TrEMBL record:
Residues 6-151 form the SecA Wing/Scaffold domain. InterPro entries: SecA_Wing/Scaffold (IPR011116), SecA_Wing/Scaffold_sf (IPR036266). This is Accessory Sec system translocase SecA2. One of its GO terms (biological process) is protein import. The lineage of its organism: Bacteria, Bacillati, Bacillota, Bacilli, Bacillales. It holds the Pfam family SecA_SW. Signal peptide: none annotated. The gene is secA2_2. GO terms for cellular component: membrane.
Length: 168
């Protein structure tokens, strides 16, 4: 994996963490819960010294945990398999969220068809809501990329092919 690709992963993580800190009131319990669910199953550090009111400090701390998890994954795999792992994690995030998006658009289509008798333009309404939904999907993909990179378990089958077990 090149340095530029690594920086792109860091950029995605930074964006996810910034969104988290800006949208929610950060408490110790909330932060620990987020870390367990998205960054590390085995988190044992103490965060009482962390200034939870300082967004930059919280983001930096989450970035440090993200980096540690990537290094842990990298240490278990050679360069070829690590690159494969990253590709699979990204593809899984895109694929699972795209399936949800298509399902949502099908439901939206039915809903908009039912609204045709209303005064709004159904095509305009569909496009407006679909665009909003697309933006939400993009954010969900980024969150899942971070989660899958940090919490996936890697192994090999009997033919030395990479196996990745993704978290729920």
């Amino acid at each position: 994996m090149t340095k530029i690709e690594h920086q792109q992963l860091e950029s995605i993580a930074h964006e996810v963490f910034t969104t988290l800190v800006k949208k929610a009131t950060v408490s110790e319990g909330m932060l620990i819960d987020y870390i367990y669910k998205n960054l590390s199953f085995q988190f044992t550090s103490e965060i009482s010294a962390l200034n939870l009111n300082n967004s930059d400090e919280v983001i930096q701390y989450l970035m440090q945990l993200f980096e540690e998890q990537l290094q842990y994954q990298q240490a278990k795999l050679n360069t070829y398999f690590y690159t494969q792992f990253v590709q699979k994690a990204i593809l899984k995030a895109v694929d699972s969220n795209w399936i949800k998006q298509v399902d949502h658009l099908q439901k939206l289509k039915s809903s908009v068809n039912a609204r045709q008798n209303g005064k709004r333009n159904p095509i305009f309404e569909y496009h407006r809501v679909a665009l909003e939904s697309f933006e939400l999907m993009r954010e969900a993909i980024k969150k899942d990329i971070v989660k899958y990179l940090c919490q996936s378990i890697t192994g090999f089958d009997e033919k030395d092919r990479l196996i990745v077990h993704f978290p729920n």
